[in-house]
Write a structure and sequence with these properties.
This protein is mostly beta strands. It is built from one helix and 28 strands.
Length: about 325
């Protein structure tokens, strides 16, 4: 028994605390960079279709889905080998997508067609196409899977979609050029970032009414350069980290008061981000500088820059 405990202890010590990978889409190189979260080095680069942007994994992490925007396809890759298994029908110019909690349906924003396409990933067939506003991009799904959100950049709206009927039941105005959306607090709130508006709007999911709005101000940075795009919540949902685009900073927001507590300097044109497995570090994609900044979450400071491909865009964690 003692020997067994010793072996288990030695095995636990051998496993890195941050073991896992961050997968990054490089939209100008048509590649994916895979970063080891223990060594903080790129360990693999895989070829994709043209202009990869959105990226997400299946629930069991056996498949990775990639929005190959200029190939007009969502590609399905085997993450163990980097092999493209097949393409899914996606509509034209897929930007972002969200995987339904059933792990079977992808909801895809089609920028050129002003629709949201619903694809069954098993049958590889389009289930529905839902008319939304002009230039849809951001996608979110409620934790219970009953509501999907599409944001439209030109119409400046968040569109609320009933997943049971694939119909719109509400449209809410936001500031100029909404880019990203996320549900929080068990689905009670919806947050939407507006790139040109320089804000994040918070909605009550039950009523679609506005609960609050946050703006950002960085000393020495012109307001026109402060452009919120992607954001991520800490597991306890006390804080949100917000990528501010060409402002080259990430804002730390108190998710209870909607107040900005701090700004962290990162690479140039920070776009999206992903936490590692224990949420101790945050990895940001910086398009213009072609790198990923590693943020120590507890210390709220950047600790390393990792060079990847040209114009990194999306990021996703794989254990």
């Amino acid at each position: 028994m003692k020997l067994c405990h010793m072996i288990l202890a030695s095995l636990s010590l051998a496993v890195p605390a941050h073991a896992g990978e961050i997968w990054v889409t490089n939209e100008k190189d048509d590649t994916l960079s895979v970063i080891d979260t223990d060594t903080l080095e790129v360990i693999q680069t895989y070829a994709t279709g043209e202009r990869p942007r959105g990226i997400t994994f299946s629930a069991d992490f056996s498949r990775v889905y990639i929005c190959a925007s200029d190939s007009d396809a969502v590609q399905v890759m085997d993450p163990e080998t980097g092999e493209i298994l097949h393409d899914l029908p996606s509509g034209e110019d897929p930007e972002q997508f969200v995987l339904h909690p059933d792990d079977k349906h992808l909801y895809i924003a089609n920028e050129d067609d002003a629709v949201t396409t619903v694809v069954d990933v098993d049958s590889r067939k389009v289930v529905a196409q839902i008319d939304v506003g002009v230039e849809p991009e951001g996608m979110a799904v409620s934790p219970d899977g009953k509501v999907v959100i599409t944001t439209s950049e030109t119409t400046n709206m968040a569109h609320w979609i009933d997943t049971g009927t694939h119909t719109l039941f509400a449209n809410t105005l936001v500031d100029s050029r909404p880019r990203h959306a996320e549900f929080t607090k068990g689905g009670a709130e919806l947050w939407v970032s507006s790139e040109i508006g320089g804000s994040i709007t918070v909605f009550d999911s039950a009523t679609q009414g506005e609960l609050g709005k946050m703006t950002f101000e960085i000393k020495g940075v012109h307001p026109d350069r402060v452009q919120p795009v992607g954001f991520e919540f800490t597991p306890d949902e006390k804080y949100a980290f917000v990528a501010l685009g060409p402002a080259n900073h990430v804002a730390v927001v108190n998710a209870q008061t909607y107040e900005v507590e701090e700004y962290i300097l990162v690479g140039r044109r920070v776009w999206h981000m992903a936490f590692d497995g224990d949420h101790a570090r945050l990895f940001t994609t910086n398009g213009v500088s072609g790198d990923v900044t590693v943020i120590d979450v507890a210390a709220r400071k950047a600790v390393k820059s990792i060079k990847v491909g040209r114009f990194p865009w999306g990021a996703a964690f794989r254990p």
